[in-house]
Amino acid sequence: MTVFRRLTGLLAGVLALAAIPAAAQDYPTRPVTVIVPFAAGGPTDVIARIVTDNMAKSLGQSFVIENVVGAGGTTGITRAKRARNDGYTIAMGHLGTQAAAPALYPNLQYDPVNDFEPIGLAAGTPILILAKKDLPPKDLKEFAAYAKQNADKINFAHAGVGSVSFTTCLLLNHILGIKPTSIPYQGTGPSMNALVGGQVDAMCDQIVNAVPQIKGGTIKAYAIATEERNPALPDLPTTKEAGLPEFQASAWNALIAPKGTPKAIVDKLSDALSKALDDEATRKRLLELGSDIPGKDRRGGAPLAALVKSEIAKWGPVIKAAGATAN
User: Fold this and answer.
1) CB 201 within 8 A of CB 131
2) β-pairing, 202-206 with 155-158?
3) Is the Cβ–Cβ distance between 252 and 92 less than 8 Å?
4) 184 within 8 A of 73, measured Cβ to Cβ
5) pLDDT, tens digit (0-9, with 9 covering 90-100), for 98-107
6) Cα-based distances in Å from 73 to 94, 134, 157, 251
7) Is residue 7 included in any domain, yes or no?
8) Domains in the chain, number
9) What is the C-alpha to C-alpha distance for residues 166 and 14, in angstroms, rounded to an integer?
């Protein structure tokens, strides 16, 4: 009887393993949930919706965006870590949740490197230095002087400790030698609304979230923190041109899956993402927002895994030097 049970158990295990490739081959057979760890309307949400719209067409199933806000995006990524690793729940992580969070959150409930399967980089998003439209400084040099002179009065909006808007402004403030008041919101969308409404003074934000407001004149932009100007905002100077070359920052957004998601499924998602980035209509939408579309050599799981490790090494020291932490 014992031998029979053992043989039955062994046979069940073999059949289960054999079923994995079949399941991966048929994947997806139902909608895929994509956890976006910020509010709707922010840059991570916008990029997720653009790329998964095309991925849905490629894979023949809908991709449903689930916005899970809180703790600088770490609440949503924690949920993604705990999801079933069957390919039907993935997430859109970014610089803040996958690189800055380990240094900011002593009790972080996930390991960005070891708790996820990297699917691929979706888009790079240059950082802009922004302000409400009636803030007095006219250019970046005046803004830097104004911020130093009014360090006890000026405030910066962000999407929570650990978010891109928080982390990149942390670097900016460190360079300027100031510690202004920071005001958190449940996502970059709400914080941008506060900036447009004049409820906050300034913000460091991803270009994807700011182009329409800048062109519409509802906010002002001082510079883009990249080596070259961006085609979406050709008249906006770089930080180097504007007098603050030390401030260089570009965020990124990437799809990840829970650890243990079958490789065949991860590869299928990665291939669909790459096809989306080659699609003319998808590229047009991303480029109009100022996104940096990764080339073939930067796509897929391996380049993303290397990027996460290098970004953790880059931002950890910056955060620790600033003495920032989220308790």
Assistant:
1) yes
2) parallel
3) no
4) no
5) 999 999 998 9
6) 9, 30, 15, 14
7) no
8) 2
9) 49
pLDDT, tens digit, for every residue of 34-75?
999 998 988 899 999 999 999 999 999 999 999 999 988 999
Query: d(Cα 166, Cα 188) in Å, to the nearest integer?
Result: 10
14 in any annotated domain: no
Q: In sequence order, what DSSP letters do the residues of 96-116 get, joined into one string?
A: IIIIIHHHH-TT-S--TTTSE
DSSP-derived secondary structure letter, 87: S
- Who has greater pLDDT, 139 or 13? 139
Which tokens hold the place of 277?
């980035």
CA distances from 37 to 102, 186, 233 (A): 16, 10, 27
Q: Tell me if 144 sits within 8 A of 247, measured CB to CB.
A: no
| Token pair in block for residue 321 | 């030097």
Residue 137 lies in a domain: yes
Q: Indicate the helix (H) or strand (E) that contains 155.
A: strand 155-158
CATH number, residue 162: 3.40.190.10
pTM: 0.85
**Domain-embedded: residue 22:** no
Q: Judge if 243 and 139 occupy the same domain.
A: yes
47: its two tokens: 């990029």
CA dihedral 222, 228, 230, 234 (to 10 degrees): 70
How does DSSP classify residue 18? H
Structure tokens at 276: 């989306």
Question: Does residue 21 have a pLDDT over 90?
Answer: no
User: 164 with 194, same domain?
Assistant: yes
Domain that holds residue 308: 29-124+252-322
Token pair for residue 247? Answer: 């401030």
State the Cα–Cα distance between residues 157 and 155, nearest whole angstrom: 7
Nearest Cα to 120, choosing from 47, 32, 187, 46? 47
